[in-house]
Design brief:
The structure holds two protein chains of two kinds. Chain A is mainly α. Chain A is built from five helices and no strands. In chain B, helix 2 packs across helix 3, helix 8 packs across helix 19 and helix 17 packs across helix 18. The two termini of chain B are 34 Å apart. The chains are: A mainly alpha, B mainly alpha.
Amino acid sequence: MQERVTKLSAEENSQNAYSATLLDSLVDMSLLLLIGFIGISDGLRIILTKTDAVGSAPAGGWIVLLGALLIAGTIKLSIKEMRSERDTVSAPAADNQFWLPVVAITMLLIYIALIEPLGYTLATALFMAAYLRVFGKYGVLTVAAISLPFAFGSSWLWAVMDMMLPQGIMPWP
Amino acid sequence: MDFFNGLMTVLTPEYLAYSFIGCLLGTLVGVLPGVGAASAVAILFPFVTFLPPAGMIITMAAIYYGAQYGGSTTAILVNVPGEVSSMVTAMDGYEMTKQGKPGPALAMAAIASFLAGIVGAIMVVLVGPSVARLALLFGPAEYLGLGLFSLTAIAALAGSSLLRAVLVTVFGMIMASVGFDESSGLPRLTFGTISLLQGFDLVPVMIGLFGVGEVLASLREQSSPITTRIGKLMPNRSEIRAGLGATGRATGICLILGLLPGMMPSIGSFISYSIERYRSLTPQRFGKGAIEGVASAEAANNATAMANLIPLLGLGIPTGPTMALMLAAFTMYGIVPGPLLFTQQGPLVWALIASFFVGNVILLILNLPLVGLWVRLATIPYPILAPIILIICLVGAYSTRNTMFDVWTCALFGMLGWLMRVRGWPLAPLVLAFVLGPMIERAARQVLAVSPELLLHRPAFWFFIALGGFVVWLSYRFSIRGELTD
């Protein structure tokens, strides 16, 4: 009975792993197909609507060609990977670190959005502070001791190197 | 005579300072876990653009080989390679560290890199001008063939699947097409937005893929603290003899292989290591602390990197992401690498080539005594390093054209780079396609404008197509594909 349960679990794991990798592949392939279709449609737009412009046909034709290659290659890869995954997939290892980059990306995007309104110095201080708290789990004093000098020091350095970064609400540097 | 004039130029205090700063910065960034040579060049590139042309290019070259050395330091000491090519070094280098011999491993890595770099620089001096003279005979058909061969070669050698690499290549060419078409002036793939009219700039794309993307990918790894003391630095006589033999063989092989587009230092390292193990009478030592493993990997690295410069300088064809950045550096100053470079910009080119010799000497002198410092840098906790690297990447991206669009581009390609790494898509073909795509399109349109029958009368075109097919066969026959980030 125990053996049957173990065997069923292994089969379920394998099936789940197959489904997960199939889903991953489908997402990748869908994105590539979308890009291919966008390329073809924009290329056709140029060819069909810009007939009075010199060189419109080669300009649009190049994009159509690339889009068609992308679609054809994606379909071929999809078929190939679907056939091979069923035979070779194994249960994926538990991976709870996938969310680390997702959190980092979210913080990064918020930081970029804040650079212009708040200014580089303030936005950088906030980003570093948040990052150190979330990923390093440092105390408030440590976070302040690292993020503030870095934000102000780097602002000064970029100014010395004649890099004009957004000042935002701060009148310095 | 040109070379000696270049050498005299580089030995002036100003240019010595550029080489020194480049080696220092490159090693400093290269020792950071998760940051390889290509990432180091991508991250630091915007910050050297205020230098004069020769200074910037010399500094960038010094950053590149400095970062390669830095990557091998962490690979040997903590088994955290900064890049794929350092992985091979880690296989035996870290084992030597575990056996209490980190000093000889580090010294052998430095000596092998130095010797391969010097021999490689000599080859650039001897072969570079000849390749440039040959390329003067090239027309659109030859450039079309060369471009297609380059992309085919890198697709064949990058990643575990040729078809995936081809799709990434096509995707890269589509990305390169965003913006104004240079011939007709028509906007392509801009969707009516003004920001996209300017297209994607190579520098933010590279910084995103190789800087931001590397950091995001490295968040999943933790480097172990270094507890080993460096101790005695120099290898004994038998280790030196074994290491030098491996260095010579790896250098010879990779100086030839490095001429091929797509033959990046990481592939050269794997090939040389495999050959060294295959020819050894005691192959079981490899992977367990064989000094030949360290020497062959490091020599292969540097030799391939030097050889990569020949297609760049002579033909204007970058063979990998780092060479693509070097190309961007040249074009920023209106200097076009290719057949006319040696004649129109002779002093600058010879100064650059002479700087390879000087830079390798500086690296050897600089890094062995400072290895303790580099080790301490590598132990800085990653939660502190990561945001600093990310901020520097974004500032570098912004400084390219002083526009937030480039910052968003950097972030977007950073996410793309991370996802591609996680999902097993190769990165290098994307960069090469981004750079070579416009050249191939231009050549194809010129051929079509004359007549497609032109191709029938250009044997060089068919030679390059056949060479591309040969490289594809070679990659399948010897299974030398692998994920590359440098």
